[in-house]
Design goal:
alpha/beta; Rossmann fold; five-stranded parallel β-sheet; two-stranded antiparallel ribbon; 5 helices
Amino acid sequence: MIDHDRYQPDYIRSILQGVKTIAMVGASGNEVRPSYFVLKYLLEKGYDVFPVNPRMAGEEILGRPVSASLSDIASPIDMVDIFRGSQAAGHITDEALELDPLPKVIWMQLTVRNDEAARKAEAKGVKVVMNRCPKMEYGKLSGEWGWVGGNSGLVSSRRQRLHESGKVQSLGLAPKV
């Protein structure tokens, strides 16, 4: 069982390198909402992101079709990113654990924590991250976090490199295509 109060950088890095498809539950089309700019960031990093929002089903966010639920997504999902409250995370995790194939990761956003949901997911072999943002964690591991004055908590003499898009750093975190 993972210590959900402290994640090791290698654990987060393995997740961010190991996933390609992400279902973002609670995605918003409102440009000032955190879920909007996290979705945009993850798309720019090369992830295939599927927005999930029942009120926006059938519409698009950033050119991506919005699904009403996880079960409406036709592609296998590697990671479910939960942008809903802690209590809702339990139901969303239950829905994710009914998918076939199972996602590799259940990721609960900042302030979202549901220990019971985490136990259920881990019991089925699914990795869990709680109270973290994949955009922020990617930024910390890639060196981008320092651009805005953030302390990544990592010290490395490794030379940073550009993402394949040529726009941002990656430290090799771009998903494998």
